[in-house]
Amino acid sequence: MAPGTATTSVPTRAGRPAPAEAPVPAPAPTPAPTPVTASYEPRFDCGRTCLDLLATAHPAEQLRSPDRLRAWIAGAGVVPPGTPLTAADASWLVRFHELRGCVGLLVRRDPVPEARPYEIALGRVNEFARAVTPAPRAVRTDEGALVRVLEGPPDCAALLAVVARDAVELLTDPVAWAGLRQCAGDNCPIVYVDTSRGRRRRWCSSETCGNRERVARHRRRAAALART
Questions:
Q1: What is the 3-state secondary structure (H, E, C) of the chain?
Q2: Is residue 41 a contact partner of residue 176, using CB atoms and an 8 Å limit?
Q3: Tens of pLDDT along the chain (228 residues)?
Q4: How does 57-68 read in b/e, with b if 16+ C-beta sit within 10 Å?
Q5: What is the total count of domains within the chain?
Q6: Which of 16, 48, 199, 212 has CA atoms 20 to 30 A from the CA of 91?
Q7: pLDDT score at 210
Q8: How far apart are CA 112 and CA 106, in angstroms?
Q9: Are 40 and 71 in contact, with CB atoms under 8 Å apart?
Q10: Which residues, 6 or more positions from 49, have their beta carbon under 8 angstroms from its beta carbon?
């Protein structure tokens, strides 16, 4: 230390200098919020079980796990309420996705008999439909009412057969086929059977696609008035 240089220190009770305070760390940056993925619930208003299955691909994949597939099977009425589906696994998803793709190919355009993709899809649906469907039974509850149950836990092939047979009935029923419609909403691929009076139903849902169309129409009118 150079002569004449004075030093100062803050005395403590023991007469020793107090240690320098540690620097306060800067607060950690707030992490960005995790994007929330929209969850879409299955719909069962397309008029046929096979079309309800087809609707599970829009607006996002809904059959993305065995649990979601179990929920759809029960909600679509493929099995009676309370039927155990514990055997459902990833292989079930693959097979239901395949059947869904075949149904979509068969109902979304006019069939051309010589078109190979159509014939392949038709052949696969027929193969799915050949399996034995679950055997139902009528049993009494504790209250004495008769309810429908299955003879035993169904396997994947039996449940696929239920949906595939519904597709066969749709394809071969002239009345149902004549009522087949695709939603008129922008970019909506939902296919349904129109059973409305006069068969004037335009949208898969008046609350969604129908409402969007009404809002768009109102905006177009408002914009036209603003230009005049």
A1: CCCCCCCCCCECCCCCECCCCCCCCCCCCCCCCCCCCCCCCCCCCCCCHHHHHHHHHCCCCCCCCHHHHHHHHHHCCCCCCCCCCCCCCHHHHHHHHHHHHHHHHHHCCCCCCCCHHHHHHHHHHHHHHHCCCCCEEEEECCCCCEEEEECCCCCHHHHHHHHHHHHHHHHHCHHHHHCEEECCCCCCCCEEECCCHHHCCCCCCHHHHHHHHHHHHHHHHHHHHHHC
A2: no
A3: 444 544 444 444 445 555 555 555 544 444 433 333 344 789 999 999 999 999 999 999 999 999 999 999 999 999 999 999 999 999 999 999 999 999 999 998 665 666 889 999 999 999 999 999 999 999 999 999 999 999 999 999 999 999 999 999 999 999 999 999 999 888 899 999 999 988 888 888 877 786 776 666 656 677 777 787
A4: bbeeebbeebeb
A5: 1
A6: 48
A7: 66
A8: 10
A9: no
A10: 76, 77, 78, 162, 163, 166
- Give the domain extent around 138: 49-177
In a domain, 205, yes or no: no
Residues in the chain: 228
Please report where in the chains the tokens 């046929």 appear, as a residue: 48
For residue 117, being part of any structural domain is answered with: yes
Residue 196 lies in a domain: no
